[in-house]
Write a structure and sequence with these properties.
Length: 275
C-alpha cells in the first residue's frame, strides 16, 4: 500500500476511535450531571430551524394558552418542535372524521408542551394518531373509550369531542389530550435511553419513594379530593392525572402539595410560562 494512503487510513481510524471514546465520555458525564441537576447539558441544538405555517401559527395564537405565555425565544423553539412533530406523525380520521389543520396543530401542540423541557421530544414510540369524532367502542374490553396510548400498535387514539372539551374548560383538571399524551410520555421514557428519559424515570422513582415513605401525604391526597379518584387506579393513571392538574391548575397544585409539585417540575424539567 502506498505510504501516504496508509497514513490517511490510519489517521481516519484514530480520529474515528477518538470520536467514539469522546462521545462515550460525553454521555457518561452528561448522565451524571443530569441525575445530579435534573437537566441535560443543553435542551436545544438545531442546525436547521423549521417553522410552522401561517395557519398553524394563527391556531396557536388563537387557541393555545401555553404558547402565548412563552417568551419570544421559546416561541421560536416551540414552533420548530411543532413543525417536526407534525412531520413525524401520521394522523388518521375514523368514523367520518376528516383531519383538519386545527386537529393536527392542537393535538401536536399538546405533545410539544408536555415535552418542552425534554431534549428528545418526538415520542418516537408512537407514530400514528387516530382521531374519532366521539368516544369509540373497543373490542378489547368491550367498552367505550375516550382515548388510549397503545405502544404495541405505536398509536395514540383520541375522541375529538372530548379533546376539545378538555381545552374549552381549562381549569377543571380534566383534559383528555394531556392525559393520553401523559401516558405516551411515560411509556416512551421507559423505552428510550436518552438523557431526558433518564431524568424522567429517576424523578418518577423519587416521586414514588416519596409517597411510599410518607403515608400522611397519601392520606392528604385522597382526603383533599383535588386529584380525581381515577388517579389511584395504578401508577400510570396517577402520573397522567397529576399531569392534568399540574398543567391546568399549577398555582393550586403548588399551594396544596408543594413537594409533589416540585417532583413533577423536576421530572419534566418544566420551568416555563409561570410554572
Amino acid at each position: 500500500m502506498d505510504p501516504t494512503l496508509k497514513l490517511i487510513f490510519l489517521t481516519i481510524f484514530f480520529i474515528g476511535m477518538a470520536l467514539v471514546i469522546l462521545s462515550r465520555f460525553y454521555v457518561f458525564f452528561e448522565q451524571r450531571y443530569a441525575l445530579r441537576s435534573s437537566k441535560p447539558f443543553f435542551r436545544d441544538f438545531v442546525l436547521r430551524r423549521q417553522d410552522v405555517t401561517k395557519d398553524q401559527e394563527s391556531i396557536l395564537r388563537r387557541e393555545f394558552t401555553f404558547y402565548n405565555k412563552l417568551d419570544q425565544r421559546n416561541k421560536v423553539i416551540f414552533k420548530h418542535r411543532l413543525a417536526r412533530f407534525i412531520q413525524r406523525k401520521t394522523f388518521i380520521g375514523r368514523d367520518g372524521v376528516e383531519v383538519t389543520e386545527d386537529m393536527r396543530t392542537l393535538i401536536s401542540a399538546t405533545a410539544v408542551m408536555l415535552t418542552f423541557g425534554f431534549r428528545n421530544y418526538t415520542l418516537d414510540l408512537f407514530d400514528k394518531i387516530v382521531i374519532y369524532p366521539q368516544p369509540y367502542f373497543s373490542k378489547v374490553n368491550e367498552t367505550y373509550h375516550k382515548g388510549e396510548a397503545n405502544p404495541m400498535l405505536r398509536t395514540i387514539v383520541l375522541s375529538w369531542e372530548d379533546f376539545e372539551r378538555g381545552y374549552h374548560i381549562g381549569d377543571d383538571n380534566l383534559n383528555l389530550g394531556i392525559h393520553e399524551f401523559g401516558h405516551a410520555l411515560h411509556l416512551n421514557a421507559f423505552q428510550a435511553g436518552d438523557v431526558s428519559s433518564i431524568i424522567f424515570n429517576h424523578g418518577f422513582n423519587k416521586l414514588m419513594n416519596y409517597l411510599q415513605h410518607n403515608s400522611n401525604v397519601r392520606q392528604e391526597l385522597i382526603a383533599s379530593k383535588y386529584f380525581r379518584a381515577y388517579a389511584y387506579t395504578n401508577h400510570y393513571e396517577f402520573f397522567a392525572v397529576l399531569l392534568e392538574n399540574f398543567i391546568e391548575t399549577p398555582l393550586e397544585f403548588k399551594s396544596q402539595f408543594p413537594e409533589l409539585y416540585h417532583h413533577m417540575q423536576i421530572m419534566l424539567n418544566f420551568k416555563f410560562a409561570g410554572y
